[in-house]
Structure to design on (153 residues):
């Protein structure tokens, strides 16, 4: 557990790195079904191999982005007296490298800002990088905002 004061002292520092997670073809196919994005580069391995420079299918960029929640749950410190946390938005997202089916990715989190909005609301801004195991460049870089709601004393 970490207090808000302790967290505030860590602005500008890396807070955590998640474990590696494999992005499987069934993950990609399920995401395609949920979103309706069945572009062949994601769901047709034979065609993706023959017609793209990727060497096979790749994950949707938004699938990779959606992993931030799971990565954050694992990598970020638990905030003392936090009642709940909610996604607040994204300031910037860049998809830098495709994530091939079967690749492993992880999230790296730096606390970029902490803003005390109300007595019980803390806006947290993270610079997040999703790394690809063995990759020269990350899959994505984002500035992610979350709101922590703290139990009032």
């Amino acid at each position: 557990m970490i207090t808000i004061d302790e967290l505030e002292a860590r602005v500008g520092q890396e807070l955590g790195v998640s474990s590696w997670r494999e992005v499987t073809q069934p993950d990609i196919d399920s995401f395609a079904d949920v979103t309706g994005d069945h572009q062949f580069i994601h769901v047709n391995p034979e065609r993706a191999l023959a017609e793209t420079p990727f060497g096979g299918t790749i994950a949707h960029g938004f699938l990779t982005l959606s992993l931030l929640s799971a990565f954050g749950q694992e990598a970020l410190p638990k905030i003392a007296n936090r009642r709940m946390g909610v996604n607040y938005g994204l300031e910037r997202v860049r998809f830098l490298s495709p994530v091939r089916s079967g690749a492993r990715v992880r999230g790296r989190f730096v606390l970029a800002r902490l803003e005390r909005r109300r007595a019980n609301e803390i806006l947290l801004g993270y610079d997040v990088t999703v790394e690809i195991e063995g990759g020269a460049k990350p899959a994505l870089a984002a500035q992610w905002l979350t709101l922590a709601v703290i139990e009032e004393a």
In short: Residues 36 and 78 are 35 Å apart (CA to CA). The chain has a mean pLDDT of 96. The beta strands are 14-17, 21-22, 82-95, 104-118, 121-132, 140-150.
